[in-house]
Recover the amino acids of this structure.
């Protein structure tokens, strides 16, 4: 795909050795459950401390960057996806923008390898059948962007069912 590879894996994102991982964060950057909680737990308290010192929040569709704490990565990119309401409140566009923001930050920080979860498809309720094409399309565009440093984007998916949806979409 473009300048690199797009990979799909059923994996715990906190164990992957990449330059950056994308966190499915909330707008308050306050930590939470799911992927966000797992990343905060694995990274240790320095992650929350850095978030609190550098940012006062992050709007839906945007992303911010921190160090990786105790994770085997240089950076954690905290992307805020939308809560699903009914699809008529800009949710698809906001999800695409969250991924674009994350992949842009990764490239701006010279990352070549990035792992991302399926943003907003957990407790935020975004239907994975609708989210997967947005995630994959945005990743392909990031790999094809002129001048990008990105060479590999891995979607680290929580379950076999999620992996199957992403594989079918790809």
């Amino acid at each position: 795909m473009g300048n690199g590879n797009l990979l799909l894996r059923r994996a715990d994102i906190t164990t992957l050795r990449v330059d950056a991982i994308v966190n499915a964060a909330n707008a308050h950057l306050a930590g939470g459950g799911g992927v966000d909680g797992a990343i905060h737990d694995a990274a240790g308290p320095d992650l929350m401390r850095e978030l609190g010192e550098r940012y006062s929040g992050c709007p839906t569709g945007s992303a911010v960057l921190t160090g990786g704490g105790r994770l085997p990565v240089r950076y954690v990119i905290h992307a805020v996806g939308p809560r699903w309401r009914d699809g008529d409140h800009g949710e698809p566009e906001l999800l695409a923008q969250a991924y674009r923001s994350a992949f842009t930050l990764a490239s701006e920080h010279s990352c070549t390898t990035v792992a991302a979860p399926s943003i907003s498809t957990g407790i935020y309720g975004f239907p994975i059948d609708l989210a997967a094409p947005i995630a994959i399309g945005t990743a392909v565009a990031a790999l094809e962007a002129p001048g990008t440093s990105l060479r590999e984007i891995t979607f680290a998916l929580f379950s076999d069912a999620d992996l199957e949806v992403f594989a079918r979409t790809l």
